[in-house]
Write a structure and sequence with these properties.
By secondary structure, the protein is of the alpha/beta class. The chain has 2 domains: 192 residues, Rossmann fold (3-Layer(aba) Sandwich), CATH 3.40.50.2000; 135 residues, Rossmann fold, CATH 3.40.50. The chain is built from 12 helices and 14 strands. Strands 3-2-1-4-5-6-7 form a 7-stranded parallel β-sheet, with helices on both faces. A 7-stranded mixed β-sheet has the order 10-11-9-8-12-13-14, sandwiched between helices. The radius of gyration is 20 Å and the shape is globular. The C terminus is likely disordered.
């Protein structure tokens, strides 16, 4: 079987998931990867057959999206050409982890595909949303990537096509410990803002992962650490808690390890607002933003001894079983159409 696997390269979650999933997919056949986007800090440790700058999100230093940067990076004629040239018709299975170009190419060439990943879970109305829905946000989640079939991932199984997160083996097989530091990963903030915020708590030690640094350095009670898979795993496994955005992979890994989580969604990113609503249902403390009351929220969070733990160890097997059952259905439908044509 020839498998086309499109991976979104905005942020690090999609790439981390792809690196974990790839060995399992390769048991079913040959996998060609299309990496689309150019705003991630992790490298995909696998051969990449097709590459595109795609359409990516960019962040300012104040916890929100940089819309001007996003607009500048979009090249409509390049995107149109890539949609035309992407050879999705040569594959038995097209697996799309939130890439617009692949979605549009499949639609143009009438090729069945499976939208796989966290964003696919929002196809269900049962997936948690914030109290105030965003019309634009809902439209983007439902229409940015269209497919003939869906396999979603989320913190809980809200629908019959939704499964738990794909957790990398380094986390699944690890023995976590309770160290004396707090791990921080807030990629929509820059170092000056993070320095000012966390040096206000001199009695606590923070390990802050920053896209701006290339080597580990110490500044008072803060260690600035480059975004690196091994270093992040080590910090997460031994932390007393983690402060992060309301993305998907990082909170999911923390839940698997039973770590205390303080989540802050990126301003203007509706998907993260939805994730925050889901995390709150689980029992995680989520803040809408970092404001003047952050010290009070931080103290309440750090003094609360409780944490939540989930078991996502069967998620890969269950989601792949669903994916290849869909692939069988798609193949049977294609064979039936050929018979009717003849």
């Amino acid at each position: 079987m020839k498998i086309f696997y499109a991976v979104q390269a905005t942020g690090n979650g999609h790439i981390s998931r792809a690196m974990t999933l790839l060995p399992y997919l390769q048991q079913y056949g040959t996998v060609d990867i299309f990496l689309s986007g150019d705003n991630s800090n992790l490298q995909l440790d696998a051969p990449i057959k097709y590459r595109s700058k795609g359409i990516s999100l960019y962040y300012n230093c104040k916890g929100g999206l940089d819309y001007w940067q996003m607009i500048k990076k979009i090249q409509p004629w390049r995107v149109k050409q890539e949609i035309r040239d992407l050879p999705v018709e040569k594959y038995h299975l097209v697996l799309n982890d939130f890439d617009y170009i692949t979605s549009a190419a499949c639609a143009k060439k009438e090729i069945p595909s499976i939208h796989f990943g966290h964003q696919a879970s929002f196809k269900s109305a049962r997936t948690p949303r914030p109290g105030k829905k965003s019309i634009a946000g809902e439209y983007l989640l439902k229409h940015y990537v269209k497919a003939t079939h869906y396999t979603g991932l989320h913190f809980d199984q809200y629908d019959d096509f939704i499964f738990g997160p794909v957790i990398k083996n380094e986390i699944l097989n690890a023995e976590p410990s309770a160290g004396d530091h707090i791990t921080v990963y807030l990629p929509s903030y820059c170092e000056p803002q993070l320095r000012q915020l966390f040096q206000a708590f001199p009695d606590f030690r923070f390990e802050i992962f920053s896209k701006e640094t290339r080597s580990i350095r110490q500044e008072k009670n803060i260690s600035f650490i480059p975004v690196n898979k091994e270093l992040f795993n080590k910090s997460l496994l031994s932390c007393t808690g983690i402060i992060c955005g309301a993305g998907f992979e990082t909170p999911a890994e923390a839940l698997q390890l039973g770590k205390k989580i303080l989540a802050i969604p990126i301003a203007g990113q509706y998907e993260q607002e939805c994730n925050a609503a889901a995390l709150e249902q689980v029992g995680v403390l989520c803040l809408p933003a970092i404001d003047k009351n952050f010290a009070t929220h931080f103290t309440r969070w750090i003094e609360n001894p409780s944490s939540i733990q989930k078991d996502y160890s069967n998620s890969v097997a269950l989601s792949l079983e669903h994916i290849f059952s869909l692939q069988t259905i798609m193949q049977e439908h294609e064979d039936l159409l050929l018979e009717e044509t003849w």
